[in-house]
Amino acid sequence: MPEDPIAQSELSALTRxxxxxxxxxxxxxxxxxxxxTALRLQVGNLDQxxxxxxxxxxxxxxxxxxxxxxxxxxxxxxxxxxxxLVGKDTSSG
Length: 93
Description:
This protein is mainly α.
Protein backbone atom coordinates (compact mmCIF):
# COMPACT_ATOMS: atom_id res chain seq x y z
CA MET A 1 0.00 0.00 0.00
CA PRO A 2 1.52 3.34 -1.04
CA GLU A 3 1.94 6.02 1.56
CA ASP A 4 -0.50 8.91 1.56
CA PRO A 5 1.30 12.04 0.20
CA ILE A 6 -0.98 14.41 2.17
CA ALA A 7 -0.29 12.56 5.41
CA GLN A 8 3.45 12.60 4.67
CA SER A 9 3.33 16.33 3.97
CA GLU A 10 1.45 16.99 7.21
CA LEU A 11 3.88 14.79 9.13
CA SER A 12 6.84 16.68 7.65
CA ALA A 13 5.27 20.03 8.55
CA LEU A 14 4.60 18.88 12.10
CA THR A 15 8.14 17.54 12.42
CA ARG A 16 9.58 20.85 11.17
CA UNK A 17 7.45 22.83 13.63
CA UNK A 18 8.50 20.53 16.47
CA UNK A 19 12.19 20.90 15.60
CA UNK A 20 11.90 24.70 15.26
CA UNK A 21 10.16 24.89 18.62
CA UNK A 22 12.78 22.64 20.20
CA UNK A 23 15.59 24.85 18.85
CA UNK A 24 13.83 27.98 20.10
CA UNK A 25 13.33 26.37 23.49
CA UNK A 26 17.00 25.37 23.64
CA UNK A 27 18.06 28.96 22.82
CA UNK A 28 15.70 30.40 25.41
CA UNK A 29 16.91 27.90 28.00
CA UNK A 30 20.49 28.92 27.23
CA UNK A 31 19.59 32.58 27.71
CA UNK A 32 17.86 31.87 31.02
CA UNK A 33 20.82 29.78 32.17
CA UNK A 34 23.23 32.56 31.25
CA UNK A 35 21.10 35.16 33.05
CA UNK A 36 20.94 32.92 36.11
CA THR A 37 24.72 32.60 36.14
CA ALA A 38 25.10 36.39 35.93
CA LEU A 39 22.56 36.80 38.73
CA ARG A 40 24.46 34.35 40.94
CA LEU A 41 27.65 36.37 40.41
CA GLN A 42 25.86 39.59 41.32
CA VAL A 43 24.38 38.04 44.45
CA GLY A 44 27.84 36.81 45.44
CA ASN A 45 29.24 40.32 44.98
CA LEU A 46 26.40 41.79 47.02
CA ASP A 47 27.04 39.27 49.80
CA GLN A 48 30.66 40.38 49.96
CA UNK A 49 29.65 44.03 50.06
CA UNK A 50 27.10 43.38 52.82
CA UNK A 51 29.73 41.53 54.84
CA UNK A 52 32.10 44.47 54.38
CA UNK A 53 29.41 46.91 55.47
CA UNK A 54 28.73 44.79 58.54
CA UNK A 55 32.37 44.95 59.54
CA UNK A 56 32.46 48.71 58.97
CA UNK A 57 29.31 49.16 61.05
CA UNK A 58 30.86 47.14 63.87
CA UNK A 59 33.92 49.40 63.79
CA UNK A 60 31.74 52.50 63.70
CA UNK A 61 29.73 51.23 66.66
CA UNK A 62 32.93 50.75 68.66
CA UNK A 63 34.08 54.29 67.79
CA UNK A 64 30.71 55.74 68.82
CA UNK A 65 30.83 53.82 72.10
CA UNK A 66 34.32 55.24 72.74
CA UNK A 67 33.19 58.75 71.87
CA UNK A 68 30.17 58.47 74.20
CA UNK A 69 32.42 57.24 76.99
CA UNK A 70 34.76 60.21 76.50
CA UNK A 71 31.79 62.56 76.36
CA UNK A 72 30.48 61.22 79.69
CA UNK A 73 33.90 61.79 81.22
CA UNK A 74 34.06 65.36 79.90
CA UNK A 75 30.51 66.02 81.13
CA UNK A 76 31.39 64.68 84.58
CA UNK A 77 34.47 66.94 84.70
CA UNK A 78 32.40 69.94 83.66
CA UNK A 79 29.80 69.19 86.33
CA UNK A 80 32.56 68.94 88.95
CA UNK A 81 34.10 72.24 87.85
CA UNK A 82 30.78 74.05 87.67
CA UNK A 83 29.71 72.61 91.03
CA UNK A 84 32.92 73.98 92.53
CA LEU A 85 32.09 77.44 91.20
CA VAL A 86 28.59 77.53 92.64
CA GLY A 87 28.40 80.21 95.31
CA LYS A 88 31.84 81.66 94.55
CA ASP A 89 32.22 85.24 93.50
CA THR A 90 33.68 85.12 90.00
CA SER A 91 34.51 88.85 89.93
CA SER A 92 37.02 88.55 92.80
CA GLY A 93 39.23 86.38 90.64
